[in-house]
Amino acid sequence: MESLFNTFQNSEIAMAIQESSWMFPTLESIHVLAIVTVLGTIAAVDLRLIGWAWRDRSVTAVSEEILPITWIAFSIALLSGTFLFVSRAHDYAALFPFRMKIAAMALAGLNMAVFQFSALRQVADWNHDANALPRSAKAAGTVSLLLWITVLAFGRWIGFEI
Amino acid sequence: MKTFATWLQNSDLTIWMGTNLWVVPLLQVIHIACVAMIFSSSLMIALKVYGFGATDVGVVRVSHRYLPWIWAGMIGLICTGIFQIIAEPLRAMFSWVFQVKLLLALLAVAGTWLFQKRMQNILSAAGQPVSYSFVLRLNVTITLLLWTAVAVLGRLVAYIEVG
What we know:
Chain A is mostly helical. Chain A has helices at 2-9, 12-19, 23-50, 59-87, 89-93, 96-117, 123-126, 135-161. In chain B, helix 3 packs antiparallel against helix 7, helix 4 runs antiparallel to helix 6 (96-124) and helix 6 packs antiparallel against helix 7 (134-156). In chain B, 79% of the residues lie in helices and 0% in strands. Chain A binds chain B through residues 25, 28-29, 32-33, 35-37, 39-41, 43-44, 53-54, 57-58, 61-62, 64-66, 69, 149, 152-153, 156-157, 159-160, and chain B through 25, 28-29, 32-33, 35-37, 39-41, 43-44, 47, 53-54, 56-57, 65, 148, 151-152, 155-156, 158-159.
């Protein structure tokens, strides 16, 4: 793994990003815009799952409207994040906040998968009635919201360590 | 201004924030979370005005849902922003990037306020169909672009030194 990260860090693209005065700040700006969109849009869906917002709209209507934007933003964040990572792969991989950020993202993915294959299967029972939201849906929304805030916090922390 | 900034630089609060290294990062995380609230809410409104999204709600309800989040986010931005200036007064107050960021943020606030006024006018003319006029689209587009610029300049403050 270490040698792979070294190969990344010494690659042509990594060198180009390191030596350019504008590439890193540009990638970082794109990354920040994408992350704030992921966090903000996913929070809107999570708040519906918890039952704090859009209570009179169905869960599926809210998520079908918002989640495509989340996925587009997430793809942009992932792509720009990959370039940022490659520029100093070896250094980032060794950082505690970077590792924690990846771990929090993995947990957020796991939380989403568990929700998808459990509570969401019975969505018809509570889709339209915010008072009938099962605990599992509320828990999935709360955990997701907390994990994405954690991702943001560790992401900012990286900037102080690198 | 320089005297004030220098005085602030030596204040107890600035020194306290300088010695407690967790304070500024925490403020920054809250600051970015507020940017997330504002930017995503503005994006949702803009997409609705352009006719994207679910058909079960119109632009008025979408605005009603997201405008309070934009204003709440702004209060959070201002509070955490002020403390970040206090933490590093010389770096913040004399950076042209920061000054342009503030100016654009003010314009974005004006854009959001104008949009809210238009929504109130639509509400008071209840019963009439909402027209997604060119002016309304221009309003939300410019506001969203201004918030984008504010977020980007916020990141660039760290790169372009005071000079």
